[in-house]
Design brief:
Number of strands: 3
Number of helices: 6
Shape: elongated
């Protein structure tokens, strides 16, 4: 059976929900921009000491602002762009192509009934979240 990208994304959402996965996606670029902007403003207002103070204050505020709030992974998966979904799908299809199922409910049942498949797919998801999205992952409610 051809593997549908929507079925794979639904499987990942179900798997991550069952594991209670949450992630905080970091936006380090925004923090760096804020630190640079406050250093510039500090420099314009106070010269060299203003650069140091502005950079320090902006860096602290930027770090706080971009620390991220943990969101459920199923919600993050729903917000992925089609290109990001395709990338995750390409990694998962290597594991799923040997399975035989008729609908997404049967696919989910097959995976949830097999600890090895769960482990492999969870590893794919964690790898994607941590490397591609630079997210911190948390388990449990």
């Amino acid at each position: 059976m051809p593997i549908n990208i929507d079925d794979v994304m639904l499987l990942f959402r179900h798997l991550s929900q069952e594991k209670g996965m949450k992630a905080a996606v970091k936006h380090s670029g925004q923090g760096a921009l804020l630190a640079g902007a406050t250093a510039l403003i500090g420099g314009l207002m106070g010269g060299p000491p203003g650069i140091a103070v502005g950079g320090a204050v902006g860096g602290l505020f930027g770090a706080w602002m971009t620390s991220g709030q943990f969101k459920p992974v199923p919600q993050i998966l729903l917000e992925l762009s089609p290109a990001e979904q395709q990338k995750l799908y390409d990694e998962a299809v290597v594991i799923l192509r040997r399975l035989d199922w008729t609908d997404v409910a049967q696919l989910i049942a097959l995976v949830m009934g097999n600890a090895s498949l769960q482990q492999k797919l969870t590893a794919v998801l964690i790898n994607y979240l941590s490397k591609d999205l630079r997210a911190d992952i948390q388990y449990g409610e």
